[in-house]
Amino acid sequence: MSVGIKDVAVAAGVSPATVSRVLANHHVKPELRERVETAIRLTGYRPNLSARRLRSQHSNTIGLIVPDIRNPFFTTLSRAVEDAAYKANMRVVLCNTDENPSRETMYLRLMQEERVTGVIYAPTRETAAQLDRLNFDFPVVLVDRYGPAGKHDSVVLDNRQASAALVEHLHARGFRSIAGLFGNTSSTARDRLSGYTEAMQERGLKPRTDFVAPNPDAAAVVARQILSRKDRPDALIASNGLILLGIAQAMQELGLRAPDDLAVAGFDNEIWTGLIGSGLTVIEQPVADIGHSAMRLLFERIETPEMAPRVVMLSGKLIERNSTRRLS
Amino acid sequence: MSVGIKDVAVAAGVSPATVSRVLANHHVKPELRERVETAIRLTGYRPNLSARRLRSQHSNTIGLIVPDIRNPFFTTLSRAVEDAAYKANMRVVLCNTDENPSRETMYLRLMQEERVTGVIYAPTRETAAQLDRLNFDFPVVLVDRYGPAGKHDSVVLDNRQASAALVEHLHARGFRSIAGLFGNTSSTARDRLSGYTEAMQERGLKPRTDFVAPNPDAAAVVARQILSRKDRPDALIASNGLILLGIAQAMQELGLRAPDDLAVAGFDNEIWTGLIGSGLTVIEQPVADIGHSAMRLLFERIETPEMAPRVVMLSGKLIERNSTRRLS
DNA sequence: AATCAATCTGAAAAGGTTTTCAGTTTTTTG
DNA sequence: CAAAAAACTGAAAACCTTTTCAGATTGATT
Q1: I need a labelling partner for B23 at 20 to 30 A (CA). Which of A130, A266, B99, B227 fits?
Q2: Residues of chain B with CATH 3.40.50.2300
């Protein structure tokens, strides 16, 4: 059937072991190496990765488990992870959980069966809570979200600070009735909530919060309610890009415009936030950096398994646009 | 080290073969099956997929090779492919080529080494042209783009028709000087070009075309030139979502608005096209359908390898928005 | 009751590679 | 130049399953 290392060995007049050594760049006399290499070319030999993995006990595979690759944050993240992975000669197996804990456990089990080298993982809060009870045979690096302190490496945005920066920005521009619409599944949303709440209280302002599943449709439903209330807020903050999108859609339907009718700000500097109306003020996350850092942590963890778990915290950047302009 | 099928066999007091049969749902006496199942639970056994793949000669893996997962078209496509794959108990290995032929050949080689069950592939024109000379050990289904007729299955939009529909739409609304900005790497852009050209000529209009690498920055550069010409067109068509985005950015920089300054239309109903200004007219592609169809074709090809190659052509849908409104 | 068929189980081979171990050749050293 | 060390190579074991084949058990038929 398919040509294997044995056939190459025969063609080159050497043992399979020697072929394997040539492939792995071990020491082999130039002359033999030459013969093997032409034999490989002639036979069109391609290594069988399953066999290689089985014998060498290295899968050269890393798992990427995210809620939904269609969330632009995770799209960009996945690209960064893949670039780093392929540079290190590793494959990436991609898994979408839809924020569904049962899918998460199923994929984590799959990762075990694949004997992956490591996993980059954005868990739901529900699964994250049990994360230190679970035991994996591979290192896990959490991204965007984290679990109970201490068991796994993680890389996250400084969410409280970022959230507070939004409040500060709005406050400085004269807004006082600042509402927040937050996701209800991740540690990230929770941190952004507490950053918001604290910043509000520091300024003697009353927090006004709502919670929603982190997707545009669900957010739009709640946003419509908030925006139709008699005491509509002056400003509305979204805890991530999907929710911000829902708000934008609700505003369009209701014929409301920022900043004239109310100020709007949120997270994730997605393309459309710069194009819509006269621009939406957002916190930009260094998404590619997050992905690269996660891979770096993963590799370092593999190198030094005993090292104490680390948290890498990156700063967001406030992108001021017209949606939070001071009204004259 | 890790618990294998042998350990389970010992624990259950049966042979490894029986354990394997239980795992594969073959006939095994209820009593033994019971014993094996509890042994599996007790030992925490997890199958080793590498070993399984090596022995069974089924990788249960499909490759997905796309230019860039960050292009929303391919993001959505990948999600559809993965959903279908995981339903069929298959993994997906994701590869980004950046429209770079050398990365394409490298990934195709990787697919051979993985002994994948099949590949879903959006090739550059350059590689597509050689595609019938190459021989793979696995079926390949082309998506979005196709190669020289006849060797592989493919799923594409009816691009000529869609492109013509845009011209027709603009023509019906009174626009006559209709320019087109097309990508230069794919068969898709070429088809959209010829649909455009023919539709223009049928109406006695002179085609005005420019070509550009399919990414927003490159498109923005050319768009700025087009929009600054003395004989600026009445209307501008983009051959895909990334180019349309470049045009939108250029217009914003130049302070131009659609439809007042010129009409704008394009492909791919991305979120932002409905939010920007008063909406951009686009052809919406049934992206998820394209992904599902591709997987269906792949599975049917595996089932019936001899079948003549098929082309599935899906229709786009014109979403009329304000950017092509007739000027009163 | 004896035979035949059908069902179930276990021993052993197979899948394609890497790695160990021992043996052979080459190089270095005294 | 001889002995020791180093470098290289090949045979065989190992990685963990699935699958084949033959043997054993059960059930059905005459």
Answers
A1: A130
A2: 59-157+287-315, 159-285+318-324
Q: Which two tokens stand for residue B184?
A: 């230069």
CA of B20 to C1' of D23 (A): 19
Residue B147 and residue B132 in contact, taking contact as beta carbons nearer than 8 Å: yes
* Residue A94: strand pairing partners: A64
Residue A57: nearest nucleotide (C-alpha to C1'): D15
**Answer CATH for A5-47 from 2.102.10.10, 3.30.420.10, 1.10.260.40, 3.40.50.1110:** 1.10.260.40
**CATH code, residues B59-157+287-315:** 3.40.50.2300
As a whole number of Å, the end-to-end CA separation of chain A is 78
Pairing of strands B317-319, B281-284: antiparallel
pLDDT exceeding 70 applies to what percent of chain B?
Answer: 99
**A3, A271, A276, A278: best mutation site toward chain B, by most B Cβ within 10 Å?**
A271
Span A2-36, pLDDT tens digits: 899 999 999 999 999 999 999 999 989 998 999 99
User: CB B114 to CB A69 under 8 A?
Assistant: no
B148: pLDDT confidence band, cut at 50, 70 and 90?
Answer: confident
Measured CA to CA, the distance from residue B111 to residue B62 in angstroms comes to 8
Q: pLDDT tens-digit profile of A137-177?
A: 999 999 999 888 778 999 999 999 999 999 999 999 999 99
User: What are A's interface residues with B at a Cβ cutoff of 8 A?
Assistant: 2, 46-51, 53-54, 59, 68-70, 72, 75-76, 78-79, 82-83, 91-96, 109-110, 112-115, 137, 245, 248-249, 252, 271-272, 275-276
Average pLDDT over residues A182-190: 91
